[in-house]
Amino acid sequence: MNKIKKILIANRGEIAIRVMRTCREMDIETVAIYSEADRTSLHVRYAHEAYYVGKAPSSESYLNIDKILEIAKKSNADAIHPGYGFLSENAEFARRCAQEGITFIGPSPEVIVRMGDKIQAREAMTAAGIPVVPGTDGEIKSEEEALSIIQKIGLPVMIKASAGGGGKGMRLVKNEADIVSAVRAARSEAKSAFGDDAVYIEKYISSPHHIEFQILADQHGNTVHLFERECSVQRRHQKMIEETPSPLMTQELRDEMGKSAVEAAKAVNYYGAGTIEFLVDNDLNYYFLEMNTRLQVEHPITERVTGIDLVKQQIFVAEGKELEFGQSDLRQKGHAIECRVYAEDPDNNFMPSAGKVYKISDPLGLGVRTDGYVYEGYEIPIYYDPMISKLIVWGKTRDEAIARMRRALYEYKITGVKTSIKMLERVMNNENFIAGNYDTHFIENNQEQLQSKPKSDAPEDMVILAAFIDYLDKIANVTPNKKEFVAAQSRWKKISHVNHF
Ligand code: MV4
Question: Ligand 1 pocket, 288 CB below 6 A?
Answer without folding.
Answer: no
